[in-house]
Amino acid sequence: MARRLLIAYGVLGFAFLYLPIVFLVLFSFNDNIIPSLPFRGFTLRWYRELGFDFVLHDALYNSLVIASITTVTSTVIGTLAAFPLVRCTFALKRATQAMMIVPMVIPHFLMGVALLLFFAFLHLPLSRLTVVLGHIVFTVPFAILIVSARLYGFDRSLERAAGDLGATPARVFWHVTLPLILPGVVGAALFVFTLSMDEFLITFFVSGQKGTLTMYIWSLLKDGIAPRVNALASVLLAASFALLLVGGWLLDRGAAGRSAQGRTP
Amino acid sequence: MSTAMNRRDFLKTAAMTGSALAAAAVGGSPRPAAAAGTVNWLAWGGHVEPQGIKSFFDASGIRVNHVGMSGNAETFAKLKLSGASQYDLFEADGLWPVRYHQEGLIEPIQLDSIPNVAKNMYPEFKKIPALQVPGGAMLMVPWGWNPTVLVYNKSKIKTPPTSYEVLLDKKYKGHVGFSDQHEFLWPVAAYLLGYDPFKMNKEQLNRAKDVLIQIKRNAPTISKGWNEQLRLYVEETVWIGLSSPGRALTIQSSGGPAMGWERPKEGYVGWIDGDMLVKGSPNRDAALAWLNHIHSPEYVATNFQRLQRGSVNRGGVELLKAQGMSEMVRANLMDQPEMALKMRLIEAPANQDEYAAAWNEVLAAS
Amino acid sequence: MNGPPPGPPDRRERALLWGLLPVAVVQAGLFVVPMAIMFLYSFWSTRNFQIVTTFTLDNYRAFFESWTYPRVLLRTLGTALVITAATLVLAYPLAYFIVRYTRRCQKVLLAAVILSFWTSGLLRAYAWMAVLGHGGIINKGLRALGLIDAPLPFLLYSPFSVVLVMTYFSVPFAVVAIYSSLEKMDWTLLDAAGDLGARPLRAFWHVTLPQTMPGVVSAAALTFVPLVGMFFVPLLVGGPTSVMIAPLIANQMQAFQLGLGAAMSFIVALIVLAALALPWRYLDLERLER
């Protein structure tokens, strides 16, 4: 009885999670300027509008550039930090861990305000650089967390074996450690990328004249008449889905590789 | 070994992607570097026609980079905080260009030096005294205009409203429009209390603030832009509010109810918006070329059909009439430019700080 | 099992410590310093779009002067608490369902949870406006069924809609957090309790819940803190008389009231740090990753 209730709840829960997403997709095909019922007719014209919306293309391009630079930087910084946090014991370790977490949870509007004032103080004009800096600070903790998770489950005997066999620490890292934590690093990269692409508040405060995707969406929601917003949402959903599949596939290959290695004597 | 191959390929791809992106970031554009320039245009989202931007690029190779603006005071503050040098053109309403000029941010323009403006603009708009400098140059190139009046849902409100008092009427609780465009709300309170909308001192602002809070309590939400207001009127959540004749028609043509509009007896304000050229802009020629393009009859006709309001451009208005839109032209007063100059235009208050503080309290009040 | 070998840190380990340098630089330069600058600005004022750098307590005075601003802050905190509670109540059973009753498609379901919050937040909030509005599916559906005559006013632009939509946003994170905790639980204890005659509810209360409490507390803290900064959801679906602190501060920044905005932000920052410090016992980094 409890079991059946729980299963029903599970199904309802997922329906709740996806309700607005389903509506976004539905309305993207609705031949109606206002995102309301009734459903007036099936049309692809909102998707076509996306095709020649150059402001959108520029915004998307800017967001991709920002997200890519953020991803590379945050993942590298996060990976470098994960090692000492997992493997070393040192004074103030717990305090350091605490400091790592704070930028991850602090409300983005606080970060945005602080960064805006900081850049104003430095007379640094707002640009893609300021957005990248804003994105790096809150994504690094996520990267640290994800890579650390991978490092915790790490069997160090493999590293020690390689060391015993005469490999230098650099070679050990390159040939043993890195391949095994690669799924974690890739996972962190994917996560940081998504966080950056979707980030709104910090970007709201510190973006300059190069618009980003979230700023574009925000301005569409406010100004003008824009049914193509729904089409945009559906396209982004499909892209996230594809990204998720790729990520999952990469992680699976990593796991397969690792178990293959585990079998070698 | 499969994992080793994996890693090497991965790193190679990452390195190539990384360097390509870094190069692109430095270069700044996915379009060919042979582009003849860029125009950074800070403007109302409703002025943007994607097709127009594309045809301009095809014809001249110049890329227009549009950044949305949300309000005159906000734009002014943003430019003071983060610098005006990032933009080539910005937009403002009413008499705000005077403020920009006082700060030395803009360069006045001889309107007749822009071919499409010389040819197509109604003469009334070429010489707005408050916006002219000695020598005849204008502080901004006008674009559109509208009086801010009461619009109402004819089926829900049978007698045409004649006074702003209707916004305070408790029987319309939950159905009164209230936007975040504070510079259009202060005049409502000011006119009701008998003050000058743009010269209220601290005490007057205090009283005006209470009026606005009362109106706010009658509203379902604080709407953030035209997109949201349109939906609220079409869905008949909001029955009465501040807007313009053209918007009333847009509501109807978007599947909404029959709308009417009235000029309140206490008085009303209006706006003429337009583009200002940033002083010292490195892309000055490209900016002027873009201004020329948007004042072509085709661009004007497309934009004003999509978002109905008064136009300054006779060429565009004639084109709309030729396309069979005479009714829309008449209803929007598009061919009556003299009406625009009869309005009290919005302007920047001298004590902007006090207005901002008062608005803050309006927002925060329950 | 996999910790560092016992004994004093060797040369290799000390070399590893350098890895902390980049993140320390990032934290110091892009977090601590900006916060300090914000603190600095809170003692300055602005006049006529210029910053006046004479020290003043006026901004803080303005905040506490009347009840207006503190009320906004308290409303934000109160709403955040309600949303956190609702989120935990909704998320826990969902996480439980995924762990216990879905062996085969567990990964798929988790991916589905994660995918739902990879869709742009702005757009999902926008979609909720369409669902809850006067012309939306709930109102239209209920009217079609004849259950109501006029659209329900409280569905949108009310505290209800803010709580509903923010809970919707918080549930996926909470599910993932609680899931990791549930997954690592020793289920044999639950079976043992059953064997000893405990009914499912008792077993849950005395065995499962205490064991997963660290996960729940982490989820609570990680849910509550970002909620204090909720911005676009209250703006899009909230009522006009219940503004939250973040949109209010944003408005101040946009109006060049930098001093007041900085002061209010700093007050919020203190509250946020306090909220993080309280359950710190449970927010052990190692526990979070396991």
Structural features, described:
The complex is a heterotrimer of chains A (265), B (366) and C (290). Chain A is mainly α and 265 residues long. Chain A has a single domain (56-263), classed as MetI-like (MetI-like fold), CATH 1.10.3720.10. Helices cover 79% and strands 0% of the residues of chain A. Chain A has helices at 2-28, 45-51, 54-87, 93-105, 108-121, 128-152, 157-164, 169-198, 201-206, 213-222, 228-263. Chain A is globular, with a radius of gyration of 23 Å. Chain B is an alpha/beta fold and 366 residues long. Chain B has two domains: 37-143 and 272-336, 3-Layer(aba) Sandwich (D-Maltodextrin-Binding Protein, domain 2), CATH 3.40.190; 147-269 and 348-364, Periplasmic binding protein-like II (D-Maltodextrin-Binding Protein, domain 2). Helices cover 45% and strands 15% of the residues of chain B. In chain B, strand 1, helix 2 (50-60) and strand 2 form a beta-alpha-beta unit. The longest helix of chain C is centred in the first third of the chain and has 34 residues, at 68-101. Chain C has one domain: MetI-like fold, CATH 1.10.3720.10. Chain C has helices spanning 11-17, 20-41, 58-65, 68-101, 106-116, 121-132, 137-144, 159-183, 187-195, 200-228, 232-237, 245-254, 258-277, 285-289, and strands spanning 45-47, 50-52. The radius of gyration of chain C is 24 Å and the shape is globular. In chain C, helix 2 (20-41) crosses helix 13, helix 3 crosses helix 13 and helix 8 crosses helix 10 (200-228). A two-stranded antiparallel sheet of chain C has the order 1-2. Chain C contains 14 helices and two strands. At the A-B interface, helix 3, helix 5, helix 8, helix 10 and helix 11 of A face helix 1, helix 2, strand 2 and helix 9 of B.
